[in-house]
């Protein structure tokens, strides 16, 4: 059921011959007769500055909707919402297909890369680890002394030369090359 239109000033309704009705920008409705009684561009009810629009079947659909019945509006907007929802769902599905295809390509690339790595590992001979000729517990007269200070090897500074047995006892094997030594 459509909203009954009436003048907010005199409460008259459209009849034949019909006076024209106008809608103000502040949301009031007036018949043409009452509108002529008031000040130009001023609402008769709230006295605010306003603009008027003559109501007819040619006005904007959004303004026509103000006078439609709620049931008609619900049906109209329900159809629009359904169309919008279907469009968006179709769009989401299309995007999902795109991402699934992209994921499948990435998985295939990963699989190929993994196979290539395995082939390279099969072709490469196993690395031989050479044991040190002397264990850290045995005494090696050719080892380099290792006294770590600030991360660098340092040699003891004595005013006199130590004996050979003292030198051998203080020497240890440093398996990690020092950043200062060229290997």
From TrEMBL:
Q: Which Pfam families match?
A: zf-RING_5 (PF14634)
A GO BP entry: protein sumoylation
Region annotation (Disordered) maps to 121-183
Here the segments flagged for biased composition (Polar residues) are 132-151
Keyword Zinc-finger assigned: yes
Q: Where is the RING-type domain?
A: 7-47
Sorted alphabetically, the Gene Ontology cellular component annotations on this record are:
synaptonemal complex
Alphabetically ordered keywords of this record: Ligase, Meiosis, Metal-binding, Zinc, Zinc-finger
Name of protein: RN212 ligase
**Gene encoding this chain?**
Rnf212
């Amino acid at each position: 059921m459509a909203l009954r239109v009436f003048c907010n000033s005199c409460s008259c309704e459209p009849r034949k011959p019909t006076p024209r009705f106008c809608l103000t920008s502040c949301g009031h409705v007036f018949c043409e007769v009452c509108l002529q009684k008031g000040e130009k561009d001023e609402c008769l009810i709230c006295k605010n500055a306003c603009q008027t629009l003559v109501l007819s079947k040619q006005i904007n659909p959004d303004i026509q909707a103000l006078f439609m019945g709620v049931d008609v509006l619900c049906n109209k907007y329900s159809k629009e919402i359904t169309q919008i929802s279907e469009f968006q769902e179709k769009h989401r599905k299309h995007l999902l297909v795109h991402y699934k295809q992209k994921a499948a390509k990435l998985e295939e690339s990963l699989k190929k890369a993994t196979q290539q790595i395995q082939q390279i590992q099969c072709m490469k001979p196993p690395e031989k680890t050479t044991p040190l000729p002397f264990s850290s517990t045995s005494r090696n007269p050719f080892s380099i002394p290792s006294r770590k200070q600030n991360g660098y090897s340092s040699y003891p500074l004595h005013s006199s030369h130590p004996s050979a047995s003292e030198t051998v006892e203080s020497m240890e094997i440093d398996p990690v090359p020092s950043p200062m030594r060229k290997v």
